[in-house]
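Structure (tokenized):
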């Protein structure tokens, strides 16, 4: 029985050594892959920004050509916000991919203005506020349209609401 326990301890010791060697190799391989994955992710963001810019530009052109931008102001503003966000998404991540180091005052301002993603966040925040306004306007318009079209029976609630 003593001999078997020595074999088990040797076997478990070898498996720990082999596992440690495998983990080291795996970590080294993952370190090289993360830069490749980051590059592909940035390429995907640039393509998404270019496609979003093109589609929103087409929608803006159609709305302006049909002269509907005065009739549907909030929808037009939503498309403008989406266009700006898509444009800056493409620009920011293209700059991040192709300009590795920034130096001097111009590099500092370029970093603060574009690479910090502030234009993207500003456009997205404006888009969120605009969507909230659209939702509120639609809710109130629907509420008052349905309320005025439905005749209510003689009751205290309807009588009071008609006096106000």
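Design, position by position:
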């Amino acid at each position: 029985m003593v001999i078997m326990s020595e074999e088990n301890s040797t076997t478990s010791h070898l498996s720990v050594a082999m596992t440690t060697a495998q983990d080291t190799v795996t970590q080294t391989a993952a370190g090289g892959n993360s830069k490749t994955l980051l590059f592909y992710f940035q390429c995907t963001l640039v393509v998404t920004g270019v496609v979003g810019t093109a589609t929103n530009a087409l929608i803006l052109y159609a709305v302006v050509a049909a002269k509907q931008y005065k009739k549907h102001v909030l929808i037009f503003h939503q498309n403008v916000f989406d266009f700006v966000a898509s444009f800056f998404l493409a620009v920011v991540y293209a700059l991040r991919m192709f300009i590795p180091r920034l130096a001097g005052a111009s590099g500092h301002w370029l970093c603060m203005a574009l690479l910090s993603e502030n234009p993207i966040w500003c456009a997205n925040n404006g888009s969120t506020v605009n969507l909230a306004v659209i939702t509120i306007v639609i809710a109130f318009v629907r509420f008052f349209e349905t309320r005025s079209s439905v005749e209510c029976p003689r009751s205290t609630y309807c009588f009071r609401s008609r006096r106000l």
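Reviewer-requested clarification: The radius of gyration is 30 Å. Residues 2-125 form one domain.
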